[in-house]
Amino acid sequence: MDTIVADNLKKLREKHSLTQEALAEELGITPIIVYMWEAGRLPIEYKTLVRIADFYDVTVESLLENEAEAEAKPSASDKVTFNCRICGGDLVYDYTEATCRCANCGNKWSIAELYPRYARVITTINKAARILEKKTDLASADEANLLFKQAIEECSKYNDAVSVELIKICNEGQEKAEQLEIYCRGKHFFENKSYKSAVAELEKVRGFRDADEMLRRCKRKPEA
Predict the structure, then answer these.
(1) Do 161 and 74 contact (CB within 8 A), yes or no?
(2) pLDDT per residue over 181-192, tens digit each?
């Protein structure tokens, strides 16, 4: 296991005046596992790091970096780079899917694994994206817009290239949420045979879902 993680686990335990046995009891594991973690002899899963971070009320990121790294955060102009662990190839990031894939060998990793502090943000973005993909009502458009707004507020706490990319995705998501809202109004007018009103709304979202088809049908029917 990474010696930085091992050292951080030991420092936190000692800071809270806990023995290895006491921590093991809190986590429901055996003391030998805690000993091996702190000795750097046993890998620790990400989900276990989350449990430990919650227990100590710290971020997962603080368990993964040393003090020097914490003080030297990358700026928004820094390029996010991470080479494939298998072949060393370049990684292609897909923030909406929360993954990065090696352009050379195809291996894939979770962005949350590489940047743990963004795990919650990415979950929020994915939830909003699923709403926009599956729902077709005004309430869902409002909910998605709110989720994107929350994600932007969370990302704004940081100043790095990852937050910049995620904010871009949120801005695009908010635009789609607005399109869905307009589409829903147009569809409502269409279903109620208020074709002029429907056209006025649907013209704003041409190409969105079946807006073009409804426009075509509106122009062939008289106003009710």
Answers:
(1) yes
(2) 999 999 999 999
